[in-house]
Amino acid sequence: MTDAIEVDHLVKRYGGLSAVAGIDFTVRAGTVFAFLGPNGAGKTTTTEILEGLRNRTEGNVRVLGLDPWTEAAALHRRIGVIPQDFRFFEKITPREAIEYYGSLFGTHPDPAGLLERVQLADKASSRFDTLSGGQKQKTGLALALTNDPEVCFLDEPTTGLDPTARRAIWAVIRSLKAEGRTVFLTTHYLEEAELLADQVAIIHHGRIIAAGTPTEIIATHGRPERLRFDAGPGLADYLRSRLPLSVRAADGRVEVELHEKTDALRALSAVEASGLPWQNFATVQDTLEDVFVRLVGQMDDGTLKSEGAA
Ligand SMILES: Nc1ncnc2c1ncn2[C@@H]1O[C@H](COP(=O)(O)OP(=O)(O)O)[C@@H](O)[C@H]1O
Ligand SMILES: [Mg+2]
User: Are residues 177 and 65 in the same domain?
Assistant: First the structure.
């Protein structure tokens, strides 16, 4: 498989601020890549450099083999973009907007088909300023697709949307991938990345602090699997005295870290032998969100240094 996006030691400085501080990653053609990070991490800066809308300070960037800054015109024919906080002329309808984009690109998009595809056919003739947030984002998606793009850049396409609208956008992202397009998605919804992305990079203060598939990131940076009981701290004390395993108690729950299969059985036997009250047990694993919160926290308090992209 070829790489649709290649980023090599990318740096962007705004005056004294290194908004992007030397990042590396690649995105294989036909995959969904999620760029995750808190506000101000450098997501939009990176995205707009890839789109050819901002120039870089240092480093090398290729999108579809093109330099986005010096070969912007050629690139723009082949990519689709929804900027963060997508806005459009207030009085224009989604159908007119698509026709307008078609005239800009010299293409002949099919407004009805595109609006059908983003589940907005019923609003084809409504003025942009009367659309809900989700409908505006869907208009943006339809516009991003007018030139049949090979790579779609979606900068926080679901921020602020209700769960139904968010799922509608997810369905479109899945269909873009199914058609063999590459999707570069930024989001701060970890669950979204976990559901949609083949590869994820977590950026914070302009540096990539973790990269890989969601499963790899959880395996590398997550805590071990735990057996969780609803029980008081007395049970935790008892288990600590009986088991060579790490035991934590908080919020009416006790968690025992599992390192081997037999650890779960030993923990359950010990709980039963304690004679102390408990209810409900389950195994729990870190989610991408757990890992994200911990990594960002560790970086902020200086206990974690950034790493290169995997
Ligand atoms: N045009 C600009 N001029 C100066 N600083 C900027 C500019 N754009 C972004 N920044 C700063 O760069 C950092 C990264 O911003 P941005 O890329 O928008 O982050 P994100 O999209 O992850 O929220 C922030 O500290 C932001 O204030
Ligand atoms: Mg942004």
Answer: yes
Residue type, 148: D
pLDDT at res. 80: 95
| Those residues with Cβ within 8 angstroms of residue 233's Cβ, 6 or more apart along the chain or in another chain | 249, 254
Question: How many distinct structural domains can be found in the chain?
Answer: 2
Minimal-distance CA residue to ligand 1 atom 26: 40
Compute the residue count for the chain. 310
Tell me what pLDDT residue 298 has: 86
Query: Could you identify the atom of ligand 1 that is nearest to the CA of residue 41?
Result: 22
Q: What pLDDT digit, counting tens, does each position of 201-219 carry?
A: 999 999 999 999 999 999 9
- Which ligand has its closest atom nearest to the C-alpha of 154? 2
Provide the 3-class DSSP secondary structure of residue 192: helix
Same domain, 166 and 269: no
Query: Which residue CA neighbors atom 7 of ligand 1 most closely?
Result: 14
In a domain, 103, yes or no: no
Q: How far is the CA of 99 from the centre of ligand 1 (A)?
A: 32
Q: What is the CATH number of the domain that holds 241?
A: 3.30.70.100
State the ligand closest to the CA atom of 42: 1
Say yes or no: 74 and 7 in one domain: yes
CA dihedral of residues 84, 90, 96, 98 (deg, nearest 10): 0
**Residue range of the domain that includes 237:** 223-284
User: What pLDDT sits at residue 308?
Assistant: 42
Residues with CB under 6 A from ligand 1: 14, 17, 19, 37, 39-45
Whether 86 maps to a domain, the answer reads no
What pTM was computed for the model?
0.87
